[in-house]
Every structure is written in C-alpha cells, then in structure tokens.
Amino acid sequence: MGHSKVLYALDEQGHYAATPCSGWEAEEIVLDQAIAEFERRAADAWQRARQGRGSALEYHMYHRRMDLVLLAQSTGFCKWRVRRHLRPGAFPKLSDRCRQRYAEALGLTPMQLDTLPEQP
User: Fold this and answer.
1) Rounded to an integer, what distance in angstroms lies between the CA atom of residue 53 and that of residue 91?
2) Angstrom distance (rounded) from CA 23 to CA 20
3) pLDDT single digits (tens) 83-95
4) Running DSSP on this structure, what letter comes out for residue 21?
5) What is the DSSP string of 26-92?
C-alpha cells in the first residue's frame, strides 16, 4: 500500500497545520524547479565559455547538476580553489592531475572536460 507523510501547510486562518500528503506532488514540483535552475545555469555558463568569459569546467559542473560546494567536496579541493578554476584564465593552466580529479568527479574524460558541446 502507498505510504503518506505529513507536510505542513497554511490553513484558512494562516496557521501552519499538519496535512497528510503522498508527498510526490510537492517533491516533483521542487525537483522540476531545481533541474530547471541547473539547466538555466548550464546554458548561461555555456554562453560565457563560448564568449571567453567563463570556462568549460563551469558548464560541466552545472550540466552534471553540481554546484561549487558539491564539486569542491567531490574533488577534495577547497571552494576558493574551485572558484578560481572556473575562471577562463585559470582553467587552461590546470595540471593534468587537477584535470583528472575534475574529470572523475564529473564522470567525464579529461578531453571531454576541455570541450563544450555545440548546444548547451
């Protein structure tokens, strides 16, 4: 049988009240919004990388639905270091070892990490 869970919603008087819900509707909406936001960020990063104002690393990070914190945790790099590597001037200077760590975290080859697709 299906399980339900309790969500808290505002009632007619404006107070929070427990409301039984299967939960899937709310979770699906939130998940769709999160995915749309990552897709928007990936498209923006793709455009910046094409214009030379960003790096392919930033595009791949968002395309793989990661943010700065998650990529830093996945690679073992500090956030400030990842932030620096997202810049177009720093990215081409990365060592092979750094590229390999990013590639593994993103599920790509180092060669794929350096390239952008034709479309975001």
Assistant:
1) 11
2) 8
3) 999 999 999 999 9
4) E
5) HHHHHHHHHHHHHHHHHHHHHHHHHTTSS-HHHHHHHHTT--HHHHHHHHT--HHHHHHHTSTTTGG
Query: What are the angstrom distances between the C-alpha of 35 and each of 76, 78, 106?
Result: 25, 25, 17
Distance CA 14, CA 9 (A): 9
Residue boundaries of the structural domains of the chain: 5-113
pLDDT tens-digit map of 60-91? 999 999 999 999 999 999 999 999 999 999 99
Sign of CA dihedral 71, 75, 81, 84: negative
Q: Calculate helix-pair angle for 68-75, 96-106, nearest 10 degrees.
A: 120
